[in-house]
Amino acid sequence: MKYPDSIHPDFSARDALQGVDPLQISRWSPRAFTKSVIAEADVALLFEAARWAPSCFNAQPWEFYVSTDKTFDDYLNLLVEGNQAWAKNASLLGFVVVKKTFSHNGKANAYAEYDAGAAWMAMTLQARQMGLYTHGMGGIKHDEVAAYLKLDDDHKVICGLAIGVAAAPTILPDELAAKEKPSPRKPLSEVLRR
């Protein structure tokens, strides 16, 4: 299903990037969400896209724990207070977890978090294609999340996530509404070294 884009930031400066896929350019992390339901089939589609991300030894060390229903408030309470204020209107909340060792040999997987980032980006681009937005969060109660999810020592909580339909910034408190726009990118010269 294609969800409506209820907010249209000014991407004119970014539109000059000829040749870059528009999904990349239109991706940003809003805090203003319209409380809406994402169909279960669409939730599955989002994370099906993540499933196809590349990973070292094809270990696919990521796990996405998500809630759209009766555990939503539990997940919300595992975010720091500042994130709870806006994430309460998201359609889906979740956490990215990685397995710290390879299943095939039991050795430490130094690339698990890198691989989880690839899965996150694949899911995020799928969300944009569907008219949804994602917002990753470092502001979570890591130890409490691990306890709530009953994770063993071979798993690590990486971050939280919110997914939903973007809303107008006016639904946010003034200090957050003022920040509600796509963040600038560093110049290419700062990230591409030759």
TrEMBL record:
It comes from the Bacteria. InterPro entries: Nitroreductase (IPR029479), Nitroreductase-like (IPR000415). CDD domains: TdsD-like. The keyword Oxidoreductase applies. Residues 26-79, 81-164 form the Nitroreductase domain. Pfam families: Nitroreductase. Keywords: Oxidoreductase. GO terms for molecular function: oxidoreductase activity. PANTHER family: NAD(P)H NITROREDUCTASE YDGI-RELATED (PTHR43673), NADH DEHYDROGENASE_NAD(P)H NITROREDUCTASE XCC3605-RELATED (PTHR43673:SF10). Belongs to the nitroreductase family. This is Nitroreductase domain-containing protein. It comes from Pseudohongiella acticola.
